[in-house]
Amino acid sequence: MSDLSPTPESALSRAQHRILLHRMLEIFFRFALGFWTLTVLACAAIRFASGHLPAPMYGWAALALFLLGWMGWTAAVFPGRIEVARKLDRVAAFQDRFVTYLEFKSIRARTPWHDLALRQNASEIIRMDVSRCCPIRIPRRTAWLVLPLICFLNLWIYDALSRPVLVRDPELEKVLAAKSEELRKLSDQIYREAETKKIDELRKLADEMKKTAELIKPQEGKSAEEMKKNALLEWSRLESKLTELSKAAPGASAAELKRLAETLEQDPATAELAKMLKQENLAGAMQALQSMMDQAQNNPGAAQELREMAQRMGQAQMSSEQMAEMMKQMRQAASSGQSPQLQQAAQSFSKMLSGMEKSRQQSQLAASSLGAMQMMKSGLGMQKGSMGVGEKGEQKAMGSGRGQSNPDQKDGLGIGSEAAENIFGDRTKMDAQHSPAKVEGQIGEGQSFENILRGTAEASTSTVEYRELFNNYTPEAEEAIIKENIPIGSKYYIKRYFESIRPQN
Amino acid sequence: MANENIQGVEQEAATFQSRFKLLKDEMQKVIVGQSEIIEGVLMALFSQGHVLLEGVPGLGKTMLVRTLSQAVHLDFSRIQFTPDMMPADIIGTNLIAENEGKKHFEFQPGPLFAHILLADEINRATPKTQSALLEAMQEKHVTVGGHSYALDEPFLVLATQNPLEMEGTYPLPEAQLDRFFFKLLVKYPARDEMNTILDRTTEKTIPTVERVLDRGQIIAMRETVRGIPIAREVQDYAIHIAMATHPESEDAAPMTKNYVRYGASPRGAQALILAGKIYALLDGRFHVSKQDVERAALAALRHRIILNFEGEAEGITTDQIISEILKLGEKATV
């Protein structure tokens, strides 16, 4: 059965626990911000040293460092028994009862006085209210201020650390800005062309180019690598689109148009149309057809010519689906012999020619734009190297970030990542044979000048001299005090004066 | 057995307390106010020390000493120091005496051979005469003509000096000052106290003092004081205070470094502890505390600190230096 009655030792333990708690709280509330700052700095150092610190790891590292610092500090400043006793004595105006108690308790050969003091002090200590002596005061204002600050700081730091390291490349930014501007100009040019020729596809392409120009512009808060990657992606996407457009099928091949022209050139009425088709002048062909259609509306002879033209065209063998369908339509119109159907078929053919013309122009413009873009690409410095987004290696390069160079591939848009192993040249051989040579200067013919400058000596105190001086005149002063008629009271002060100016050593 | 011892000691302490109070009360029948001075003188009596009383004339210094001698059953003598006084006038001298036709030297004891000696205006005597007291105060015996004569216990020197009229005086040398347990500054009484003094001294009935303690009781009380234990912590504090009066010590206070030439001797620390023990007893405690030591610091150290020229030129007092040392105190560790 344990003795639950209070003793000075139990009071001391209570006080120690209370002081421990007090210290922990005090340190937490007063220095938490400082701890946290140190923790964050340590984490940031780890992050920059290792290059990477994942978010959960950061959290654990921060927490561990924080706890370590807090507990370590608390332990470092935690007072021993005698300090606690001293504190209790002081705060409770205890007149050293506790300290004396602890010391007397440890004495083996105690006198009755010691025992009496122990008994007296023990009874006083037991009556002591430890909570009054060691009050735990939490600085409320500080607490309210510090805690949100810590939370905010934590979030801010977490956010800052989770962002990629921003490495800027002014040269690249300059190049990207220039390319963006060039692309924007090209898009304006294409847009104007599209407006003139009324080609919607090209207008859309111009818009796309403009957007790409904006996207590849250098942006704040993005690293050089990110900007470059983004520019390459956008550039590549636009090139793909242009390539697609430039290869768009015009609807009929040149051979088909030539074959159709040969069918029509036998008739003088369609000779002009045939000529235009042969020359692949689709706009001219459309005009000739339109002229024929206009004449056919008022002139029965011309209508007959139109029918004959449709008949001939219907007999032409076309390989492409669109042209074959067109010729079938012509054949049906010619066999019906009715004028509205003939007009409608001619109109369809004219539309087809118009579509073909637009398609051709679009393709040409896309091809020229692609050429222009490839010219621009030369300034980006992206041709050579293994890391690129070339035509064939694009997906691979972007996925792994480092593609394998292939001599069969075209030049990529990437940037080189390899360097020669010995870029600084061979090391100097320290053990190489060498012979020291002494190089002597020659005295010139000019005049020489020599002068001795006398400086002042360093400041010092001449203690020996002072002592000698003091020893010389002190006896004389003492003699004077004895012999001269000096008031007795003043003699004392004279003596004291000489005492005060006596050399210390 | 242990309990009996403890009870005995407890009884001893209670007796000390009551006797001290009794003596003090008895003295206060005549001496109005000056409670601290009376207490200081009694503490010196029970600590086997001597007291230097400093104050302007008419404040009752001599009266206080005479009252003490009346209140205790001890021999009392008074010496009025003058510049022409010789050591033999205090100690005594060998006189030629004739006994059965044979002449021989016989020692004729001086006024020093008393239990309580009032050395009035001690600074008016020459240093030669002052130094005659040195051996007596410290060693409790005197040597005349190669023969030592022990002084009877208790031996208490109560010296007075006047801080004014310094002309024609011989300030006590440091060695002499160090022999005094306390230096007490007698202050001018307050208005109420003045009323009481006038009442007591201008009426028909003049208060008289009864003898309340005899020699044996005083010696027993001295033994009691020495029995009080002190913790090393508190003793260290007393040492710290004494060391702090030395300018070259690492404990020295800033004022000490600036204005003190020599600090207190180990006798100063002894006085702190002995006085602390009496304070503890009077407070009903059986151990000395730092507060007890602090209470004794001014009286025990003020005459043991020698100011340097700057200190004297700037009018610094030793009390100011001690107060600063006490104010700085110990470095708080918790």
Q: What can you tell me about this protein's structure?
A:
The complex is a heterodimer of chains A (505) and B (334). The radius of gyration of chain A is 52 Å and the shape is elongated. The model of chain A is unreliable at 381-420 (pLDDT under 50). Chain A is built from 19 helices and no strands. The longest helix of chain A has 43 residues, at 8-50. With 505 residues, chain A is an all-alpha fold. Chain A has helices at residues 8-50, 55-77, 81-91, 97-106, 112-127, 130-133, 140-162, 170-197, 200-215, 224-246, 254-264, 271-278, 282-298, 300-315, 321-336, 339-380, 394-400, 463-483, 488-500. By secondary structure, chain B is an alpha/beta fold. Chain B folds into two domains: 22-226, P-loop containing nucleotide triphosphate hydrolases (Rossmann fold, 3-Layer(aba) Sandwich), CATH 3.40.50.300; 228-334, Magnesium chelatase subunit I, C-Terminal domain (Helicase, Ruva Protein, domain 3, Orthogonal Bundle). Chain B contains 14 helices and 13 strands. Chain B has helices at residues 2-27, 35-46, 61-71, 87-91, 127-139, 174-178, 191-201, 215-227, 232-243, 254-259, 266-282, 290-301, 309-313, 318-328, and strands spanning 51-54, 72-73, 76-80, 92-99, 102-109, 116-120, 141-144, 147-150, 156-161, 182-185, 213-214, 260-262, 306-307. In chain B, the strands form five sheets. A five-stranded parallel beta sheet of chain B has the order 3-6-9-1-10. In chain B, helix 1 packs across helix 2, helix 11 (266-282) packs across helix 12 and helix 12 runs antiparallel to helix 14 (318-328). Chain B is globular and about 70 Å long.
